[in-house]
Amino acid sequence: MRKNRILVTGGAGFLGSHLCDRLLRDGNDVVCLDNLFTGSKDNIRHLLGNPYFEFIRHDITLPIFVECDQIYNLACPASPKWYQKDPIFTFKTSVYGAMNCLGLAKRTGARVLQASTSEIYGDPEIHPQPESYRGCVNTIGIRSCYDEGKRAAETLFFDYHRMHGVDVKVMRIFNTYGPCMDIDDGRVISNFIIQALKGEDITIYGDGLQTRSFCYVDDLIEGMVRLMNSRDGFTGPVNVGNPCEFTIKELAERVIKLTGSSSRLVYRDLPEDDPRQRRPDITLAQKELDWAPTVMLEEGLKRTIAYFEQVL
């Protein structure tokens, strides 16, 4: 039986490396493309000897020519620390990357999945957020390079679908965590765990009462694969995330408890445009993908803490 040849852009990143693992376990031939701006060869080192895995160091803002049956476009810095480091490059990665993946899909006839984001909803006025919500976003703020870049990428995906019949899937990813997160990632779960394990003060921005929903990486990847292989004609966008909602302060307290840390909570000013609340409505994912998360926060945190204990 012929193996599917699957291209994963951003394949050496946190989500991308987990996806490569999963696709190889499922019996596919995987091409991992990454410029290593935020990805790392350490995430895929264990795969380099696999005859069905190929790594290409390449920037997706430039055209790529490979033969493939499916394309997962995950290439883009995803944490504020990294996407704000070079906001113009971040925006170019979202827009040019989408165009290059869509052009490749048009030429090869491949199905292409866009890893979009809950950030397209901005600081939402509707809670939880359904896919029909169009968002409350700031086009000129410090987060706009990422938020607006991902919104523009969604526009391109649907225009290529309507104009050229490209087979597209669009997934809106909510906060995801787990092993292989970068120790310097800058996102809240990795920050809290590292600070707790080192016995440092845990930094909370704002009053800590803003809410987030946290999806364990294995659940997220399961949803992604199900969307890619979902029925013809179902394009999304579809929310994938864990609808269980926690305040940032509650998260910090759980991390302290699970690590046995003596860290104290300290408070700093809230960054510009930081959303007050974020929780997915996953009704569509449940209906179309028969998907719902299975790993709850406590278990996911235990696994992630164990990973960072090894790293440190």
Task: Please provide a written account of the structure.
The chain starts with a strand and ends with a helix. The chain is 37% helix and 17% strand. The strands form 4 sheets. Strands 3-2-1-4-5-6-11 form a 7-stranded parallel β-sheet, with helices on both faces. A two-stranded parallel ribbon has the order 7-10. α5 runs parallel beside α7 and α5 (188-197) crosses α9 (297-311). The longest helix is centred in the first third of the chain and has 22 residues, at 87-108. With 312 residues, it is of the alpha/beta class.
List strands and helices in order, with pairings:
Layout: E1 5-9, H1 14-25, E2 29-34, E3 53-57, E4 70-73, H2 80-83, H3 87-108, E5 111-117, H4 144-164, E6 168-173, E7 176-177, H5 188-197, E8 202-205, E9 211-213, E10 215-216, H6 217-228, E11 238-240, E12 245-247, H7 248-259, E13 265-268, H8 283-289, H9 297-311
Parallel strand pairs: 1-2, 1-4, 2-3, 4-5, 5-6, 6-11, 7-10, 8-13
Antiparallel strand pairs: 9-12
* Helix share bin: 25-40%
Q: What would the average pLDDT be, to the nearest integer? A: 95
Unreliable spans: none
Total helical segments: 9
Radius of gyration: 19 Å
Looking at how many chains there are and whether they match, the oligomeric state comes to single chain
- Major β-sheet strand ordering: 3-2-1-4-5-6-11
**Number of β-strand runs:** 13
Give the SSE string.
EHEEEHHEHEEHEEEHEEHEHH
Terminal-residue CA separation: 43 Å
Backbone shape: globular
Largest sheet: 7 strands, parallel
Q: Which range does the strand content fall in?
A: 15-25%
Structural class: alpha/beta
